[in-house]
Amino acid sequence: MLPHKQIEQRLQQAVRAVLPDADLATVLVRPCPDAKFGDYQSAALMALAKPRKLNPRQLAGDVLAKLDLSDVCEPVEIAGAGFLNFRLKNSALVAALAAAARGEHLFFEKTTQPRTVVVDFSSPNVAKPMHVGHIRSTILGDCLARVLRLLGHRVITDNHLGDWGTQFGMLLVGWQRNLNPAALKSDPLAEMERLYKKLSAECKENPATLEAAKQELVKLQGGDAENLRIWREMIALSQVQFDTIYARLGVKFDNTLGESFYNPRLPALVEELVAKGIARESEGALAVFFDDIAQLKKQPALIRKSDGGFNYTTTDLATLAHRLETWKPDEIIYVTDGRQQLHFQQVFTAFRRWRPEAAKVQFAHVWFGSILGEDGKPFKTRSGETVKLADLLDEAEERAFKVVSEKNPDLNESARREVARVIGLGAVKYADLLPNRQSDYVFSWDKMLALNGNTAPYLQYAYARIRSIFKKGELDQSAIRNLQSAIHLGAPEEIALARQLLNFGLVLEAAATEYRPNFICNYLYDLAGLFARFYESCPVLKANEAGRASRLLLCDLTGRVLASGLAVLGIETLDQM
Ligand code: ARG
Q1: What is the model's pLDDT at position 258?
Q2: Residue 48 CB coordination number (10 Å)
Q3: Which atom of ligand 1 is least distant from the CA of 334?
């Protein structure tokens, strides 16, 4: 068992002995914010003391009297208002590293209470090229799914495609009147986008075109065979492009159930909401009102328009019902931009009223800010258009190719292309995952591709450097792993590195519970820095035999954590760069 888990478990037992009624789930151990005070810290006793009107330091003393951690920690200290600080014994650090070297863990443990979590992410709209705005949802959502899976949860990913709605009226008219079959063949999404833009401009000018679009939409909704055929073709063509991008990004979905999948459920759903008094009429439309909720006052959610059409909210309510029935999840996570906050508050609140029996299911709207250009305005192409995702990924690879070619002119072209692919895509993903997701960030090629700084190339380079140590020493990494008995931590740089390795699992867990992949980025960046310091001050290949084995093991473990951490961010590593 990992040392912090051991500490946590024994602390819980000691708390139980002193306060039999305490909720032990709140008794947690976290990394100490400042290494000066120890490796781990618990603030739990202060929280337990308060409602019981106990003196927290007194309570801490009572708990410590029941706590024996002498095999794992130095004497436990009570600090400040009643914090407990734990410092691991060197022997406990060594034992944890040895267990990792034996392959028993990589500093994290799979959960003993797996949850079923649905992650709704990416969800682009059909018949439009995926643009830069979809990258954040795709990358953040994919990362959260990976972290949860790594920790042993059951994850179901669902791509909620926008494949239904009023835009299809215009698209259908455009398709009938203006389709250029050759253009459709060579670049279907560009052609569909052209049709959409043309028709939406025409609809503004000409009421007759608007009327035609409305009629085609009604026909589609009514099941007209020809319109359905065209609509299906538009979806299929879009899906081909989406799939190409997902394959490049290494993103997979368990399900792709677009909005249209829920259409058959909508009429009955609306009737039920009306019958239960959850929705009512308002100016010919039907809406759910939230007058009892301060933030949602005067923000009713429409569920049926006056013309009988259904809304985004209606579909999301049906989607929730379907997910609950089909997958029985403990939690559903939605990854979209911040502008949809109101929408999800409405959906979650309305759903709670509609299905009070599902109160235990957790809902999370994991929202994010925008990507800005270097001028601080929304990120656009030079000519002022939205940046298409495919073009962005091409440019990332192209720019990385230049960097790689400068650094490594001797590598043959196809090898340089492969390195550039891994670096370019990694840089884009990392730049997106590193900022606090709720703030806007400035998209900067130079920054994200830099080999120095908190970037993917820097971390990939740190990894490749570790691999090169083994190559240079002509060492077999798996043979090194059998030398776990050799681990010895003497130099402060060795100890600092070992401590950081031990925190990998805590960071993964925090990233999962707070939906914040940036925790993992910063952890890996610190790890790479500690490794660099260790490598500068502690000779590895030139150390004596015992020291060499021990240090090689530290190198190997660092490399494995770096690779695993990058993999969970959806970023590949290379043995050579
Ligand atoms: N298609 C939507 C968009 O592009 C995102 C859908 C998010 N998921 C959901 N269940 N509403 O903004």
Answers
A1: 97
A2: 23
A3: 8
Q: Which distant-in-sequence residues (6+ apart) come within 8 Å of 245 by Cβ?
A: 130, 389, 390, 393
By most ligand atoms within 8 Å of CB, the mutation choice from 160, 242, 260, 346 for ligand 1 is 160
Query: Separation of 160 CA from ligand 1 center, angstroms?
Result: 6
Q: Are 259 and 162 in contact (CB under 8 A)?
A: yes
> In this predicted model, which residue has the larger pLDDT, 241 or 480?
241
Q: Kind of pairing, strands 30-31 and 77-79?
A: unpaired
Q: What is the pLDDT of residues 47-68, one digit of tens each?
A: 999 999 999 999 999 999 999 9
Choice from 156, 333, 336 to test ligand 1 binding pocket (greatest atom count within 8 A of CB): 336
> pTM of the entire structure?
0.95
Nearest-atom number in ligand 1 for the CA of 337 is: 12
Which of 554, 318, 518, 345 shows the shortest CA–CA distance to 438? Answer: 518
Please state, in angstroms and as integers, the Cα–Cα distance from residue 237 to each residue in 191, 244, 296, 465, following that order: 11, 11, 39, 43
Taking the centre of ligand 1 as the mean of its atom positions, its distance from the CA of residue 124, in whole angstroms, is 7
Which range is least confidently modeled, 180-189, 190-199, 469-478?
Answer: 469-478
Give the residue, by CA position, lying nearest to ligand 1 atom 9: 160
From the CA of 134, how far away is ligand 1's center (Å)? 10
Sign of dihedral through CA atoms 248, 251, 252, 256? negative
Supply 521's token pair.
């980025």
Nearest CA to ligand 1 atom 6: 123
Q: pLDDT tens digits for 417-461?
A: 999 999 999 999 999 999 999 999 999 999 999 999 999 999 999
3-class SS string, 17-79: HHCCCCCHHHCCCEECCCHHHCCEEECHHHHHHHHHCCCHHHHHHHHHHCCCCCCCECCCEEE
Closest residue by CA, ligand 1 atom 5: 123
The contacts of residue 200 (CB under 8 Å, 6+ apart) are 170
Q: What is the pLDDT of residues 177-192, one digit of tens each?
A: 999 999 999 999 999 9
